[in-house]
Amino acid sequence: MTYAIAEAAHRSGLSIDTLRYYERIELIDPPARDSGGRRVYTETDLAWLGFLTRLRTTGMPIRMMREYAKLRHQGVTSAGRRKQILVTQRAEVLERIAELHACLDVLNHKITNYEQCERDLEERNPGVFAEASA
């Protein structure tokens, strides 16, 4: 199955401009063209775009994504370097997750505190919150 650029953009969640940009900076191979010269994307192209999107979501810099994209054309001979790129990125993701967990702990603490404040206020002034929501 093949897809025109608009459908590929829709299916990948990326904009048409982003697809063209990724092609220009060599993150993706130039897609095949139909008889009218329009880009045609395959399922394989969409799978690669999905992977690139995941890498971006992890915060991987475009520079590293480009290196990874170039290495993949070398096949198995570049597996070690590609693995190292992913191992390094995984470590960064785990660090960010730990930071986010610490932030979540602070938010949960503050929310619990405010819930207690509301309960205390309700005990001192019954009906205050009921009237406000009516």
TrEMBL record:
Origin organism is Actinophytocola xinjiangensis
Domain of life, per UniProt, equals Bacteria
Signal peptide residues are none
Q: Outline the extent of the HTH merR-type domain.
A: 2-71
**InterPro entries found in the cross-reference section:** DNA-bd_dom_put_sf, MerR-type_HTH_dom, MerR_fam
Keyword entries, A-Z: DNA-binding
UniProt-recorded Gene Ontology molecular function terms: DNA binding; DNA-binding transcription factor activity
> Record's Gene3D superfamilies?
1.10.1660.10
Protein name in UniProt: MerR family transcriptional regulator
